[in-house]
Amino acid sequence: MIRSEGVRIRLPASTANLGPGFDTLGMALSLYAWIEMKVSEQTKFHFYGDEMKDIPEDKSNLVYQVAQMVFDEAGVQIPEIEISMYSEIPLTRGLGSSASAIVGGMAAANALIGSPLSNDKLFDMAAGLEKHPDNVGASLFGGIITAIWDGTHADYIRIEPHEELEVLVVIPEFQLSTSAAREVLPEQISREDAVYNISRSSLLVAALSNGRFDLLGPSMSDRLHQPYRASLVPGMSMILRDAYNYGALGIALSGAGPTLLALVDRRSQQKQELETYLLHTMNEHGIQATVRWLEPSKDGVVIYSDVQSEPFIDMIKGEIKA
Fold first, then answer.
1. Alpha carbon 305 to chain centroid distance?
2. Can you give the pTM of this predicted structure?
């Protein structure tokens, strides 16, 4: 049944890989996007927030496109919809902005027509578009996701983040597309490097599952992608090597970058020291950057039960202030 009043959802940003888990590990982060979707006589878009600049406002828009995929899969025809969106997630910075648009558009469209598709079906569809399941899985389900993708279907396990785990991201003020970051990767790797990453990603999943903060550092090193992408992010090699001396439990390139992500014990006495080190190192290499303290988001997609109590943008402003 189509919800005539429309729907509103919220979903988190995400980080992928966490070092060695290339295209298989993801974690939801406490930066959010909100979407409102309604049936309309004419397709309209209302975008809010600095991160929404230059987003297409026609039917080439990704949120519109994936909504139509859901309608087609469910056998429903709704060619004209009204989409409102506010996002805190920086574009092309390695924080899952495209994944959030895909998951958000699919989840909102599915809720609009009474949720005929399961979350597992939406996961398969989203992974099919992204070609890997890590970011979309984290945004859809929240928490930490370890997943496999066979080209048609994704299987996953969700890990509950440890209560004392905190995340510090340093976000350079330049964009880096995933396609550009993938172009620098080699076509083949050695057996030694494959074993290196398999062992560390296995240990990382176990460490995250069991709250073994002492093992996050050694398990987050990588030989598949970070050494090759280091040339794209000035200062990255130094940070990956030395951030542990300033309080990071583990450090990694966030997705394809250029954002770098540190896992931190929230009880640490070195949090300010780590923040200063990351900014100083970026500045030393001529890169302007900002830092943000985030939480692993335990919630994935949240569907609001009441969409008529207040205007869309007023609701969001209230949540941000809260």
1. 24
2. 0.93
Q: What is the distance between the alpha carbons of residues 194 and 242, in angstroms, rounded to a whole number? A: 24
Please identify which residue in the block is written with the tokens 């992500």: 261
Can you give the residue ranges of every domain in the chain? 7-160+297-321, 165-294
Q: Which residues contact 54 (CB under 8 A, 6 or more apart)?
A: none
Omega before residue 258 within 30° of 0, cis = yes
In angstroms, rounded to a whole number, what is the distance separating the alpha carbons of residues 266 and 48? 32
Q: Which tens digits make up the pLDDT trace of 188-213?
A: 999 999 999 999 999 999 999 999 99
Q: 165-294 in CATH: which number?
A: 3.30.70.890
**Amino acid identity, residue 220?**
M
- CA–CA separation, 21 and 144 (whole Å): 12
Which residues are CB-neighbours of 55 under 8 A, at least 6 positions away?
45, 47, 61, 85
- Record: fold of 7-160+297-321: Ribosomal Protein S5; domain 2 (3.30.230)
